[in-house]
Structures are given as structure tokens and as C-alpha cells.
Amino acid sequence: MSCTRRAAVALALLFAPLALHAQAKLSCKVQPTTLAEAQNCWRPLLVFSPTDHNPQLLAQEHILDQDADDMMDRFVLLVPVVPNAKATPTPLDSPWTIMPQSQMDRIRAQFHIPNNQFQVVLLDEMGKPLFHSDHPVTTSYLKAVIHNLPHRKIEKYRRGAN
Prior knowledge:
Blueprint: H1 3-22, H2 35-38, E1 43-48, H3 55-66, H4 68-73, E2 76-81, H5 101-111, E3 119-123, E4 129-133, H6 139-147, H7 150-155
Parallel strand pairs: 1-2
Antiparallel strand pairs: 1-3, 3-4
């Protein structure tokens, strides 16, 4: 093995632990269909909305899209929770998932949010609520909350992280 190749292997082994924290695990689904599947992979941003075209829901999607790279770096996953989802719009760039209606109903019951109420809830990687808001949340607020999480202290050192 050449000296250059040995050096490259040594560097790869040295930085392997950082790379493991730099991305979601291979076992993570890109679009989970339950909160359990999102655990240890994503920070779900649950957006409870009375309808799938509610102006506040659309505003929240727009806010996330404006800062999509930072939201991806922080593993924020938009999860709209709407009754009778027919044509729920999705962001253009931010990570998102549309869960089955049965899961949306289960999430709404779990967090005790009435069908006619708008509410935003950010969950940490383990599914614990970090905050509730009755209006769309700015990405600067999301970043500030996430910045103080223990896992974020490791994530922010990965290559290209914001």
C-alpha cells in the first residue's frame, strides 16, 4: 500500500466518528410515516391545521422553504397534521412528510389539539415536545431552540453545517 493511500485510510478512520454524526443513519426513512420512524432521525415540526390549505399552514411552509438548507442541517421535518387531508401542499425544498390519515388522527389525539385549531409543535430527536406556538414559527426561532440541544452540539461540527 502506498504512503498516500495509507494516509488517506488513516484520515478516513480518524474522521469516521464525525461522519456518523454528519448525516441521518442509513436506517432513517426520508419520509417517515409514523413519529416512531422519525425518532433518532428527525426533529418533527408538527403543524396542526384546520384544513390543508389554511393560510397559516401555507405561511409555515413558505418560512421553512426560505431557509431550507438550515432546516435540512438541523433535521427539521415538516409534518402537517390536518383533518381529512386531500391535497396537502408540500414545501419545495424543505424536508417534509405526509403521514397517513390514521397517524395524523393519532398525533392530534396525543397532543390534544382540536381539529379547528392551528398549532405548531417542535419535537426533539426522541419525540419530546420542545415548544408549542399558535402561529407560524420563524426559522431563526427554530435555529435558536435547536442550537441548545445536546445532539446539535455534535451536528454543528460536520462539514458544511450552518
